[in-house]
Design goal:
The chain is an alpha/beta fold. The chain has one domain: Rossmann fold. 34% of the residues lie in helices and 26% in strands. It has a seven-stranded mixed sheet with strand order 3-2-1-4-5-7-6, sandwiched between helices. α3 runs parallel beside α4 and α4 packs parallel to α5. The longest helix is centred in the C-terminal third of the chain and has 13 residues. The structure holds S-adenosylmethionine. S-adenosylmethionine (SAM) binds next to α1 and α3.
């Protein structure tokens, strides 16, 4: 379990499938952390996303929606993060930017999950992640679940 004292942050919401699960997980915790969802919905998914948010009552249960590009928002992000779910742009430079901008805000013992980062389907994501993993001494890989790589901040 992630520690308390920060937000759960989702980069790349698409139609809100994982967003809903993140709210379910947040609601099971005593501290009920905010879930921040970041996506400009440039792929035309905003209506479907908003339908998911309305159907599941996500706004009333702690969802904060940022209709924003993570590369932009990441430059000024300042809140502590207890769990970071990265599934936005899968381009190498963009993944590096998401990592560089958001991981410094992950609290000690906090968790990061990278979707589409194993299995060979998205080599850009895998390369960006591998470089970061090799260079950063602050995180430990704790699981690889199908195409999701999970890390815990240890320093
Ligand atoms: C693979 S989908 C996410 C799927 C979602 N996690 C799910 O499981 O249903 C990628 C999403 O990232 C978003 N995206 C792409 N570039 C982005 C960026 N720079 N910042 C934030 N979101 C971005 C897209 O709009 C798209 O909705």
């Amino acid at each position: 379990m992630a520690p308390s004292g920060g937000e759960i942050v989702e980069i790349g919401a698409f139609k809100g499938r994982v967003t809903g699960w993140l709210i379910e997980a947040a609601q099971m915790r005593p501290d009920r952390p905010v879930v921040a969802s970041i996506d400009p919905h440039g792929w035309g998914t905003r209506a479907d996303f908003e339908k998911t948010v309305a159907d599941l009552g996500l706004a009333e249960r702690g969802l904060r929606v940022h209709y924003a590009d993570s590369r932009e928002l990441g430059r000024t992000w300042s809140k502590p993060i207890i769990f970071l779910w990265i599934d936005g742009s899968h381009e190498y430079d963009d993944v590096r930017q998401d990592i560089d901008n958001f991981t410094p805000h992950v609290v000690r013992e906090g968790l990061i999950a990278f979707d589409d980062s194993a299995g060979g389907t998205f080599p850009d994501v895998e390369r960006a992640l591998a470089e970061w993993e090799a260079a950063s001494g602050a995180y430990k890989r704790i699981a690889t679940l199908r195409n999701v790589s999970v890390f815990r901040r240890i320093a």
